[in-house]
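explain this:

___
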Amino acid sequence: MKKFKQHQIPDFNFSKAVKKPIPVQCFQIDEAFEVETMEGVMKGKKGDWLMVGISGEMYPCDKAIFEKTYTLLK
């Protein structure tokens, strides 16, 4: 079994890919919260987002990560 460590990128001939633009539902929560996810219960902080994926799965998204990776649609 191969093992990979953070920040030690292997010397592979990597391909490039772009993540598909898949719309998800989201709502910013103004208090700490917990949500049951497929990986277990996860906690969100005040200002984090509650996300609902394409299969109805829910998960929290850190506010800073949301701002870097998502664009709100009108």
In short: The beta strands are 25-28, 33-37, 40-44, 49-52, 58-61. The mean pLDDT is 94. The radius of gyration is 16 Å.
